[in-house]
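FAQ: What does the model actually see?

It sees only this:
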Amino acid sequence: MKFIADFKMNYIIDNCSLVNLANGGLLDVCTRLPHKFYVTPLVYHKECTSCKGEVANMIAAGALNLLDFEPGIEDFIDLANQFSIDDGECESILACRENGFALVSDDAAARKCANALLGVANCTGSLGLIKQLTHDELIQCNEAVTAYHVMKECGAFLPRWPAPEIYLCKEESL
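And it is asked to produce this:
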């Protein structure tokens, strides 16, 4: 069975996933996956406040890319109203749709929207990337579980699992 990690993808990471991965200490490690990662201008310039320094350094180093994108205002308003998502999530999803990219988001409403517009295979969250990290042996299972708990402690809205290693560390389809 093929894993998502076996395919090179272009991902746009929205603000909630940037913050969660930074809090878990794995944002920079994710860029070692065989994918290309982007942030949109609105997320970078307006929303990304708690991890702005780390994101700026990663952009300067070429590990993360700032996407040159400006959505159409009508598409932006329609999508925001239809799915009740914030501006950064809306911009990220529209950029994914226009560029044929996949979305990384931990926001339930944004994922519902992305699943509808981009397809389920083109949407994951921070935990999906962490699972890829363990699959590709870039981190150990205990590091994945620790990151999950730190992210939860920092306020991430992630699934409540009594044993997160069952999802994060098992060899199954991502």
